[in-house]
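Appendix B. Raw example, untouched.
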Amino acid sequence: MTSTDDGDERADAGVDGMPTAPRGELNRNDSTLGPRAQRTRRRLIDCATELFREQGYVATTVSDIARKAGVSLATFYVYFAERTDVVIALLDEVVGDVMRQGVGQWDPRSGRAGLSRVVTSYVESFARHAEFFAIRESAIHADERMLEQYVQYNRHFHETFARYLEEGVALGLVRSDLDPSGMARAMTLMMERYCYDVYVLGPRAEMPSMTDTAHLLATLWADAIDLAESDVRPRAAVAEQRLK
């Protein structure tokens, strides 16, 4: 038995009929995991999420998660190297869902309507995963790895929108006197913190509708960059026409 970062202990025996694996070797969710392993991993994630919500990330230990999931510490460590890996697994799931909603895909030529669609997708995704964002907020203040993950995700997000703003400037659709990188960073962070304040911290009785939230944020963004309407068809429309 060896001590862990959370003050728990682990055994080195094999579990679930599998040979002993290095810590966290099965921290993935793909076809290489059999049905039983998939169910075990899912149960660990779900139980950890419930504990993080009920007693907080900092107060939850690996022992708590294993106990609630009804597995041994050895089983936990087959799937995750430490508590942080569970939150990172959740982050991967949430980011995947957010990206599938088209949040990272904006064409300046789609005008205010196109920007509104992207912002609406973001707001809806944030509201749907508000519980996770509350957990992540606690984790990034307590864990350096989570902070690094947060910084990397935000950097990727605002760099993506900076490229779209640069395209908008080149097309004459976005004001030319702005710094695309700085503006993208400011506006994406504004969206995130506003949604956090509304959907995590705000009282439910006073919570605005997702439609109202998206309209406010999209209007602020469009006005800040002086977004103009374009006579040129957006990339997606052109691509769709080519497929017909």
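End of appendix B.
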